[in-house]
Amino acid sequence: MDKTELPTNVGEDSISEETKTLIFSLPSYKDSIGKLYNYQGCWYYPNTLEGVLNFQRGFKPQGTDIILASFPKSGTTWLKALTVALLERSKNRPSDDPHPLKTDNPHGLVPFLEIMLYSKSSTPDLTRFSSPRMFSTHMPFHTLQAPFKEDTPCKIVYVCRDVKDVLVSHWYFKCIYLNKEIDKSVLEPMFESLCREVGYFGPIWEHVLSYWRGSLEDPKHVLFLRYEELKAEPVVQVKRLAEFLGCPFTEEEEVSGSVDKILELCSLRNLSGLEVNKTGKTSNNLQHHSFFRKGEVGDSKNHLTAEMENKIDMITEEKFKGTGLKF
Ligand code: A3P
What we know:
This protein has 327 residues and is α/β, with parallel strands linked by helices. A 4-stranded parallel sheet has the order 5-4-6-7, sandwiched between helices. It is built from 17 helices and 7 strands. The chain binds adenosine-3'-5'-diphosphate (A3P). Adenosine-3'-5'-diphosphate binds at residues 70, 72-78, 81, 165, 169, 172, 266-268, 271, 291-295, 299. Adenosine-3'-5'-diphosphate is lined by residues 70, 72-78, 81, 165, 169, 172, 266-268, 271, 291-295, 299.
């Protein structure tokens, strides 16, 4: 496929001489898209690594910043939409039109630090962000924390999801951007890479654990959410998110059904039906519609073999043993 059609973050055309020198010293491996390098325990394509390094060199956190973190395909888009809707509600009610979520995709409203904002420079212009600034990331916690020196000054919300569903979601997503049929020949190497603990932003288990530990150590600054809990008890979880962000629902809002209205605005059905999400692309060349599919818990059962599921479950059990974390 034409390289220019791939998401820009998986390429290698915008790295500096400094990064070129650094990557010679890093562990690497090649997948069907390109070469990945292991930096601080996490695998990146070169352009993303450039963004990570730029971020670590130049990001100046503000105490009011909100950073939404996740492993790819864990519910990032949903978390972004919910956070925007919660923080916007003093200015824009969910029923308002225009509303930021009706005119832009959640990834345009809460851009990725390493993939979008810092992809080309360590001093991007962030003046368009008003307080509280909202950013997102797929970096693991220790890499995100590097510019924070000792303490985390801002609020970080992490969403995690069952590894098997993440794999299936990623498979569909990858087939879309590679312009391929949904084919098991794409899934199988992805499964192998996952189990070998290689793959973009992987290994997933260390990623999840980095934020899990961060949330246990500093619950005031790091909130750990689960996709499955958001699906099972959305009202409880959204209220939890609002409290953490410092914008709890008032009694009046609760009575007027504000939580349900936010949930409806941010539902997969509503967001995926909006014109802005049916058309258009993110700044790193991904089609907006590719972020919305089924949004079901346990969809892996429909696609993975029992052996695949068992193997992933066994690794997960082993990795999470003694951490207090379970899927
Ligand atoms: P599926 O592929 O299982 O359907 P991310 O946003 O991290 O890229 O994750 C994408 C996954 O979240 C996809 O899962 C997608 O359908 C689901 N998703 C996107 N928007 C959602 C929403 N508003 N509510 C629930 N799930 C959503």
